[in-house]
């Protein structure tokens, strides 16, 4: 694999299936890789690393870096996560939603790859999703293909907590995210991944010995708490934190920063405290 500059801030890692854009901040140990969620990006994932010591590497899965024609499957995403992690020598990993699924898929084949793990808002394990939340993703895909920023903004806003939808920062984030998504290959992911599963049998996670932190949120239909509970129960050394409604990276951003930062810095997960509303999120 080779690396070439992509911009002043990011570089491109060349892999057999295409190039992956990434950026590393900080330095030293531990080295942590961060995997974004469906329709996410480097920018939406960076808040999760704000309290983490050492070097932090954020990257774009396929579609965020360069258009590729290979199917959107969790096994392929796991390969991309592995490629970046191996290149930077990551000993820790954090996955958000789709990124959490990619991390599960990677661990199914190499359960001892990382020393510490964080799963944020896992959406699926070994059972395909059939709930109403999937319909919104199909509508989003249609908006992406038709470059309908306004309708996509409305759909993104509908996925945010009801109490936060009137906040200017939330509305601005949704507009910017919609503008960044339209006309990109992410529409194929929005159609393919919601009914896919990263694991054939979550029982394989019993071989994972690394301490893990699993973070979920109540009243989030796209990321049901029961999925996080199953994941935490499947991992031998896992701590589960279930946040109150309000947005993990909106109302609870300070708490998540402390939990993730402390855990990935070698500390035990800290007890919950009231989060503070703040602009910005990871999804």
Describe what you observe in this structure.
The chain is an alpha/beta fold. It has a domain at 3-128 and 197-264: Alpha/Beta hydrolase fold, catalytic domain (Rossmann fold), CATH 3.40.50.1820. It has helices at residues 42-45, 74-88, 98-109, 133-146, 149-158, 168-181, 186-192, 225-234, 247-251, 253-264; strands at residues 3-5, 11-15, 18-26, 31-35, 55-59, 92-96, 116-120, 212-217, 238-243. Strands 1-2-3-5-4-6-7-8-9 form a 9-stranded mixed sheet, with helices on both faces. The protein starts with a strand and ends in a 19-residue tail after the last helix. Mean pLDDT is 86; it is low at 2-7 and 269-283.
Return the average pLDDT rounded to an integer. 86
Provide the structure class: alpha/beta
CATH superfamily of the domain at 3-128 and 197-264: Alpha/Beta hydrolase fold, catalytic domain
Task: Write down how many β-strands occur, each being a DSSP E stretch of 2 or more residues.
Answer: 9
- Cα-to-Cα separation, first versus last residue: 28 Å
CATH fold name of the domain at 3-128 and 197-264, please? Answer: Rossmann fold
Short description:
This protein is α/β, with parallel strands linked by helices. 36% of the residues lie in helices and 17% in strands.
Task: Map the helices and strands.
Blueprint: E1 3-5, E2 11-15, E3 18-26, E4 31-35, H1 42-45, E5 55-59, H2 74-88, E6 92-96, H3 98-109, E7 116-120, H4 133-146, H5 149-158, H6 168-181, H7 186-192, E8 212-217, H8 225-234, E9 238-243, H9 247-251, H10 253-264
Parallel strand pairs: 4-5, 4-6, 6-7, 7-8, 8-9
Antiparallel strand pairs: 1-2, 2-3, 3-5
Helix pairs in contact: 2-3, 4-5, 4-7, 5-6
């Amino acid at each position: 694999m080779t690396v070439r500059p992509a911009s002043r801030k990011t570089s491109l890692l060349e892999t057999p299936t295409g190039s992956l854009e990434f950026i590393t901040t900080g330095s030293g140990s531990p080295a942590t890789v961060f995997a974004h969620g469906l329709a996410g990006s480097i920018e939406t994932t960076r808040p999760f690393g704000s309290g983490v010591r050492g070097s932090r590497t954020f990257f774009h899965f396929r579609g965020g870096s360069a258009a590729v024609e290979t199917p959107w499957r969790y096994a392929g995403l796991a390969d991309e996560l592995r490629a970046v992690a191996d290149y930077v020598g990551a000993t820790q990993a954090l996955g958000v939603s789709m990124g959490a699924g990619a991390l599960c898929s990677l661990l199914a084949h190499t359960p001892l790859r990382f020393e510490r793990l964080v799963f944020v808002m896992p959406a699926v394990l070994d059972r395909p999703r059939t709930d109403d939340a999937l319909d919104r993703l199909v509508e989003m895909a249609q908006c992406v293909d038709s470059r309908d920023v306004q309708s996509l903004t409305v759909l993104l806003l509908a996925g945010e907590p009801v109490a936060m939808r009137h906040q200017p920062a939330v509305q601005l984030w949704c507009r910017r995210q919609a503008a960044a998504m339209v006309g990109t290959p992410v529409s194929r992911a929005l159609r393919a991944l919601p009914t896919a599963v990263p694991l054939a049998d979550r029982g394989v996670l019993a071989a994972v010995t690394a301490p893990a932190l699993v973070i979920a949120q109540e009243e989030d239909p796209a990321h049901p708490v029961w999925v996080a509970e199953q994941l935490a129960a499947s991992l031998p050394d896992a701590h589960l934190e279930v946040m109150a409604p309000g947005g993990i990276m909106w109302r609870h951003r300070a708490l998540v920063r402390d939990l993730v930062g402390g855990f990935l810095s070698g500390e035990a997960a800290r007890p919950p405290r009231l989060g503070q509303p703040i602009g910005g999120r990871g999804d």
